[in-house]
Amino acid sequence: MRTLATEPARVYSGRDAEGNSVFRKKTGQRSGATLNRYQVALAALFAWAKRQRLVPRGFDSPTRHVEKRGETRGRVRYLTDDERMRLLAACLESPWPRLYVFVLMALTTGARKGELLGLRWCDVDLERAEAVLHDTKNGDRRVLVLLPQVVDELARFAPKDAPTSQALIFRSRLRPSQPYATAKVFNQAVTAAGIRNFRFHDCRHCTASYMAQAGASLLEIADTLGHRQLRMVQRYAHLNTDSRRRLLARVFEGRV
Fold first, then answer.
1. What is d(CA 192, CA 92) in angstroms, rounded to the nearest whole number?
2. Which part of the chain has CATH 1.10.443.10?
3. Which residues pair with 169 in a beta bridge?
4. Strand ranges (E), the chain
5. Phi/psi at 48 (nearest 5 deg)?
6. Mapping DSSP to helix (H, G, I), strand (E, B) and coil, where does residue 144 land?
7. What digits encode the pLDDT tens for the residues 69-100?
8. Are the C-beta atoms of residues 225 and 208 closer than 8 Å to each other?
9. At 183, is the pLDDT very low, low, confident or very high (cuts 50, 70, 90)?
């Protein structure tokens, strides 16, 4: 902390006097968004240290003098209708029987990979077609709405004591208390489907993109994805052209 407190440039570059990474061992170029998040974290650290009187009186946080980096618009890669059908077909052929419903849930709920892997049978109500996420990225409890196709697929694997079962839905075969390692089988399905440049997290972009194209508002998309701020889903606004077209038609009807 002493080095960072006296040399604000270290906060900006993320490196110490020896050129080593201050934040993590991973090397390579960091995005502006990543550096900005580090800066926010450091600002909180120095604020806490000041409250605890761990720094000299009159201490001025170095993060106040560091300009924020520019942030590029986040990646938006979503599957075309043909790609989506090919991927789901490939998932049906996977050696892991639950890959199909795992990917189908990701595409239709917008849930993150870790959120899905943490689901237990007691979190799912097949009759109400809902699943409750208790451990989300922002700490908020979130309810997933399950399509009939998802409910039917889950029912195939549901144990008799599903409503009270603490078992993970997508559990490891060798270690049932641990989630299944999905990366290999998912990548195999993507390759088999002939799809390029598609990661599992992009399933989340698919959900948001399809919603935007169907005319959903940014508030509805944010609520589905579990974002507190609309700026996090602003990247999908350009896909919702039909609703804007209808709005403009109403606004300018009889005016032009």
1. 11
2. 81-243
3. none
4. 124-125, 130-133, 142-145
5. -65, -45
6. strand
7. 765 666 678 999 999 999 999 999 999 999 99
8. yes
9. very high
